[in-house]
Predict the 3D structure of the following.
Amino acid sequence: MNADSGELASMKNRFKLFLYTAIILVVGLIYLIKIHNPTAFGWQTNVVTYLTKLTDVFYLPYWFKSSGLPVYELTLNPQPA
């Protein structure tokens, strides 16, 4: 029983090593493609922007909530030079 668990742990470690290596290679390949052709992954910018703005929905209730912070008003009078 102990030998089986050792083999299983070894297989898990090999899989982790393979997975991490594959991720590093894919990220490196994307980086190299991006260096040689900056517009190659232009759609990523749109997707990231969309996902970032999608999370703003969670702040919607705070836009209508009253705040206890003081309100200051700044008035600038133009001075002749």
Observations:
- The CA atoms of residues 73 and 79 lie 19 Å apart.
